[in-house]
Here is the input.
Amino acid sequence: MKKRIVPFIFLALTFVLLTSVVYAWFSTGIDVKTELISVNVGTNQVETHLFVQKQGEEEVLITNQAQLAEILKMGIPSDEYVFRIKIVNHMSNTATASIIVNDITSTPDIGFSGDLKDAYLIKDLNVKVVREGLPIENLYLTPNSPTQGVGVDGQVLSVSRINNVIVDNKIVLANNILIASGEAINIKITLAFDSNIVSTEYRGQMIFNEFRIVIGE
Here is the structure.
């Protein structure tokens, strides 16, 4: 009887081990990107977070694309969203940071034709660099065209609209911002649904696919 039990136990253990290996292969073989922020260095070197505040409500920590899309969904003219990107330098030396928004996509609702990247704007084209105990540093984006555009239904489009600051499918918010060792900085922009939009064609969903932070020395 013992001779029969030992091979059975061995066979069962072999099956469990094989199953674990196969499961591990499937688990690690699929790379699903859920985070909005990507950084070119390790998290032990630089810490990053994205926060969004809608219409003066409580600020929310954003961890994935779906969460941000939900906040932006059903926006109406005059809605405002303050984006705050926090960067903490844990390295022993001063570093530089460039902040880039990659691949912003807009999908109109069925039956509508307006591009939401024409309806949403970066307020005053202003990017704020906030450091503790220091005056706010104001940066300004350069629009592709200095004049207003014309959209669906003859809608007049703001110079500050997202489509007017995108270059090569990205928006560079800041270049080579210095961050001292141990310092935390905040990069802030205000995204607004243009209060002058009167056409009802601007309905749908806008997706921010990636906030890219490039760290240098």
